[in-house]
Amino acid sequence: MSDTSQETMMFKRNPDNKSVDKTIEEVCQALEDKGYNPVDQLAGYLLSGDPTYITSHGDARSKIRQFERYELIEELVINYLKERSQR
């Protein structure tokens, strides 16, 4: 039998943290500055949790690790849905 819970988990945003979307923008800029594809690098980090996907340039690695991965994914989904509804 699996030890995985069948109950739904509830995540709540922490409004005291620096803006997640601003952090994502800064991290993407740092990745671009170093010649990396931000989409590939962020996807690798979000899927694996391995911080080495994010450059330390511009303190990007430390900035992104301020947030849980689910917070980053949540922000990306929110922005995607906003953009989609404006079409």
TrEMBL record:
Domain of life: Bacteria
Pfam family for this entry, one: IreB
UniProt cross-references to InterPro entries, sorted A to Z: IreB (IPR009309)
Family designation: Belongs to the UPF0297 family.
Full protein name: IreB family regulatory phosphoprotein
